[in-house]
Amino acid sequence: MAETKTNPESETGQLFTHAALYQQSLRSFLGPVVSLLDDDSVSEIMVNGPNDIYCERAGKLERTEMRFPTPEHVMAAATNIADFVGREFNEDHPSTDARLPDGSRVHLLMPPASRAGVCITIRKFKKAGFGIEQLVQWGSLSPEAADFVRFAVRSHKNIIVAGGTGTGKTSLLNALSEAIDPSERVIVIEDSSELQLVQPHVLYLETQPPRANGLGGMGIRDLFVASLRMRPDRIVVGEVRRGEALDLVQSMLSGHAGSLATVHASTTRDTLTRLETLCLMSDVALPVYVARAQVASAIDLVVQLARFGNGSRRVVAISEVLPLGPAQEYRFLDLYTLRPDATADKSGDTTHSLQWTGVKSECMDPSLNVGIDFRTLPENLRKLVE
């Protein structure tokens, strides 16, 4: 039998054609909200059944006059979105995460879980184009705090970015990643691909649902275990949601320093408690005090985000995690917190900025970080580590 040869260039072309066809098809199915997809000022689109459509602009929600003709039209759009990433959306799979061809993240939910009808929530893809400097310009970070987090990333500190829904955790994680050395091999693990790192050697791993026979699925934990065998210099987890927290924490303790991840939590203490709870959700029977001790030992820094009433998203604290206290309680140092400035703005209102608390960092102590050239640290941060 003659050997069949595969043309890699032909396969690549087919993939591009596949995405282009779906892009065209999905724009047709999403016709009523295409103008929102094309509007750069819109960051999120929320379809709550055929007759109730909202969008988010500049961090604020607004109701639109847009409508889908029938509930069946919404269902058809949702089914095609799921089909693009090879996922099922039906009575057996009533809730699904997916993405559009341009990378926008989508969540799908159907009745009876949703009384309004099929819900389509689209977090629009933003092309990578802003980093730490842009966050400083927007007031999300102070220049000094920006210098500190850059140095912490370069020094392979384990950093958790925490905040509520819509606070910009993924965007901040993406910005922080620009401080990673270009020579490092980075593995990114996500439920739905969203991060865009600038480093040349990055592998993006994305979860996959099981096939109809129940086989072939790859969850975050499966991908994490696989990544540890792929010689990573860094592991970046888009969001820690379940028992994979234990895998992440234990990898940090076993030599994979410099990990970056996000988690839903409103304060530094809540972040540590949530990670502890997620570790206990794994299939490993772990005593609470062991989970707590491992979280405290593994995490170096927590960068806390918040969203304000005017729609702005800002870092409100950068905290260093300390060893557990005598009563096995979490302890941490607030290195930077959001504080009122000494002067008011032009309108006479008090402004706030991320300011150093005057506390020296312990995890950045030069005597504990052999091999790190602290001479590269900006002069304004020497006081924080020396």
Could you name the key traits of this structure?
386 residues, alpha/beta, Beta-Lactamase, Rossmann fold, 2 domains, 9-stranded mixed sheet, 6-stranded antiparallel sheet, 11 helices, globular, disordered N terminus
Largest sheet: 9 strands, mixed
CATH architecture of the largest domain: 3-Layer(aba) Sandwich
Strand content: 15-25%
Number of helices, where a helix is a run of at least 4 consecutive DSSP H or I residues: 11
* Form type: globular
Order of helices and strands: HHEEEHEEEHHEHEEHEHEHHEEEEH
* Helix-residue proportion: 25-40%
CATH homology group of the largest domain: P-loop containing nucleotide triphosphate hydrolases
Average predicted confidence as pLDDT: 86
CATH level-1 class of the largest domain? Alpha Beta
Summarize the SSE layout with pairings:
Blueprint: H1 8-29, H2 34-37, E1 42-48, E2 53-57, E3 60-63, H3 71-84, E4 95-99, E5 105-109, E6 119-123, H4 132-137, H5 143-154, E7 159-163, H6 169-176, E8 186-190, E9 202-206, H7 220-228, E10 234-237, H8 244-253, E11 260-264, H9 268-280, H10 288-298, E12 301-307, E13 313-322, E14 331-344, E15 350-356, H11 382-385
Helix pairs in contact: 1-3, 7-8, 8-9, 8-10, 9-10
Describe this structure in words.
With about 375 residues, this protein is an alpha/beta fold. It folds into 2 domains: about 30-125, 2-Layer Sandwich (Beta-Lactamase), CATH 3.30.450; about 130-385, Rossmann fold (3-Layer(aba) Sandwich). The chain has 11 helices and 15 strands. The chain has a 9-stranded mixed sheet with strand order 9-8-10-11-7-12-13-14-15, with helices on both faces. The radius of gyration is 23 Å and the shape is globular.
